[in-house]
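Q: Give me the 3D complex with coenzyme A.
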Amino acid sequence: MEIRDRTPDDLDACVKALAEVQAGDRYPVDWPRDPAGWLTPDGLIRAWTAVEGEVVLGHVALTRDMEVTRLFVTPAARGRGLAARLLDTVRAAVETPLKLEVSSEGKAAIAFYERSGWRRVGSSRARWLNAAGEPALVHHYVSPPAPKSRLPRSGEQDVG
Ligand SMILES: CC(C)(COP(=O)(O)OP(=O)(O)OC[C@H]1O[C@@H](n2cnc3c(N)ncnc32)[C@H](O)[C@@H]1OP(=O)(O)O)[C@@H](O)C(=O)NCCC(=O)NCCS
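A: Here is the predicted complex, encoded as structure tokens.
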């Protein structure tokens, strides 16, 4: 398994993976008319895929305003730390803090973000409808601080 930049040639396989996720988790709530376009939102600056051979196991994207979006892992590849590795890849690529939004219906995603140290900073109603047909309640999260590499002060011995 490797995580690498998504290329235009990967889009079909990403859409196939997204179809598995949508069938099991309703992410996204409704199947988009243009799934490849949905995976390429406005302001996209970079996207990554987790692949095993030709098969896409996971995906994540980053937009210009430092928002992590379109994160998913196919059902068969879950629970192996793949989502955590995808997020680590995004965080390693940029130095600024990241943000993301998650629907209150995304229980697995919320559990995952909170266990990974992301902090909820607010909630709001979205314009799109949730599975119950109501404007979705979305929670806003910011990334945990990046681990600092601590340099020894002068006179301090580095025993590490
Ligand atoms: C959320 C999602 C990306 C997690 O993918 P994953 O690869 O299984 O997650 P990981 O294996 O990296 O899990 C990392 C941590 O989250 C925890 N976690 C993952 N899924 C969980 C769940 N359903 N309930 C509780 N904890 C969960 C894991 O136990 C792990 O914690 P640990 O390292 O302390 O053991 C995946 O379930 C998914 O694609 N869901 C549907 C799409 C979606 O909701 N995307 C997010 C949109 S905002």
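A quick observation: Residues 155-160 have pLDDT under 50 and may be disordered.
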